[in-house]
UniProtKB/TrEMBL annotation:
Pfam families documented for this protein: ABC_tran
Nucleotide-binding found in the keyword field: yes
Keywords: ATP-binding, Nucleotide-binding, Transport
Example GO molecular function: ATP hydrolysis activity
Database matches in PROSITE patterns: ABC_TRANSPORTER_1, ABC_TRANSPORTER_2
SMART domains associated with the record: AAA (SM00382)
Name of this protein: Phospholipid/cholesterol/gamma-HCH transport system ATP-binding protein
ABC transporter domain: residues covered: 9-245
Coiled coil: none
The keyword Chloroplast is assigned to this record: no
SUPFAM superfamilies for this protein: P-loop containing nucleoside triphosphate hydrolases (SSF52540)
């Protein structure tokens, strides 16, 4: 099976409720390795919950969540740890350690989770920082970085372990349009140069239209549209059409 035919993440009839509120209602979709999926929808429609289910930080009430050919639902912690090594996560606020330099933030997971030597770690950190345009900033602390630089740094840390699948929560939030476009470009390079699968929660329709191979629109817990940007823009569902055409 070629890389383009390999399913990276698949939801099969996933249900998730919090008390009486059903956040995901019988949701099924899949995204292939090397493709980008953007999750759109109004606040509280289950987008961030979808990311947490992929990371197995939550479990669905029913259904299956497949990550790179493993169903993570009901999986024990030891096996989950192995699966999670295939995942990178770009947090909304970058989630860097304030007391560590940018270099140290990236070196930490490499020293803890791999057997790389210090020289190898140095090489990887420098390469990844250079890839995101921060090659000269490794000695800086997060407090010295602008919002756009912090987002780049968060992306660098998410990529330092070379994940097969990158999850991104609002990667362009709080950024001006030019900086947001630069983040979009970096995400697209992850996909094209490394074959990374991207699953991006976003309210940035402009960015979604640029980056996404597939768009999923969630509304009131239901997956109301799924397909290419063009397909979703012609959806019979009014919410989906309005969201993608904003």
């Amino acid at each position: 099976m070629s890389q383009s035919q390999t399913i990276a993440v698949e939801f099969k009839r996933v249900m998730k409720s919090f008390g009486p509120k059903r956040v995901l209602n019988d949701v099924s979709f899949h995204i292939d390795q090397g493709q980008a999926l953007c999750l759109l929808g109004r606040s509280g429609t289950g987008k961030s919950v979808t990311l947490k289910l992929i990371m197995a930080l939550m479990r669905p009430d029913s259904g299956e969540v497949w990550v790179d050919q493993d169903n993570v639902v009901g999986m024990g912690e030891k096996r989950l740890s192995r699966v999670r090594k295939k995942l990178g996560y770009l947090f909304q606020d970058a989630a860097l350690f304030d007391s560590l330099t940018l270099y140290e933030n990236l070196a930490l997971p490499l020293s803890r989770l791999t057997r790389k030597s210090k020289d190898e770690i140095d090489d990887v950190v420098h390469r990844v920082l250079t890839d995101v345009g921060l090659g000269a900033d490794g000695a800086k602390y997060p407090s010295a970085l602008s919002g756009g630089m912090k987002k780049r740094a968060g992306l660098a840390r998410a990529l330092v372990l070379e994940p097969k699948i990158l999850l991104a929560d609002e990667p362009s939030s709080g950024l001006d349009r030019i900086t947001a476009s630069e983040i979009d470009e970096l995400l697209m390079r992850c996909k094209t140069e490394h074959g990374t699968a991207l699953i991006i929660v976003t309210h940035d329709v402009h960015g979604a239209r640029r980056v996404a191979d597939r768009v999923a629109v969630l509304d009131k817990g239901n997956l109301v549209a799924f397909g290419s940007v063009d397909e979703v823009s012609q959806s019979e569902n009014e919410v989906a059409r309005k969201l993608i055409m904003e």
